[in-house]
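Two proteins follow. First one:
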Amino acid sequence: MPKMKSHSGAKKRFKVTGSGKIMKQQAGMRHNLEGKSSVRTRRLNQDATLSTPDAKKIKKLLGK
């Protein structure tokens, strides 16, 4: 049977930490940044962890 291919879109968007958590970039940092406060843009610029039900689906896409 051939090897399973990992999802190339998921590869670019998520990374797995050493402990196995899935990290993602938060939404809202693409445009209209002048209208957002500095506190908000700093918070949005940090990586966020995925919830466990979502992480399970993403791990399957990544082949982990």
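Second one, unrelated to the first:
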Amino acid sequence: MNEFLTWLLDAVQSVDPIVRTLLAGVAVMLETSVLIGLVVPGDTIVIVAGTAVASLAEGVLLGIAVVLGALAGESIGFGLGRFLGPRIRHSRLGRRIGEENWARSERYLRRRGGPAIFISRFLPVLHSLVPLTVGMSGFPYRRFLAWTIPACVIWSTLYISVAALAAGTYRELADQLHYAGYIFVVVILLFLALVFLSKKVIERAERKHLEHDGPDRPAVADVED
């Protein structure tokens, strides 16, 4: 396990830091735009890039690239929602996503307003649909950014920090413990399991909130100009 894991981490780290950082930013941009996030695992991309972080400066630069990529992708989604939202919703791709998910995204934004944008960054499906929905709703772009920027910063910092810490700890232990590779894998899996469970808890709480509210109410003040 140690030999394979060392080879894998070295392969990632051997990529030029600038190229690696740019690739991560572009990948996250694609993950957060045009519904690509429904099939591209942005979380995995950030974790893989994070394992190659060798210094605080590299971590900060990677974090900036990931945040900018996420903001660019979500801005693209916002713009598409503003100008092409209904057409996308009724396209073949939109129908495959399901009317239930579109309606859920609309209700979520209507009920929560700005906080829905923040929380959606951490929820499956909604993190790809909400920017489009926000664009269709008439929500001001500047307020959209005010809610999504802190969410993107927290999300990227969490993933990069855990990946870098796990990889750094493994490298320190690899020559001393033959099972250091298993420790690394367990740490990453536990982190992903914790993230998954947290998403499920938040998602369930939001579903109950929507069900408890009953029929749609007028849009909250945050959705108004």
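SUMMARY FIELD: The chain has one domain: 2-215. The chain has ten helices and no strands.
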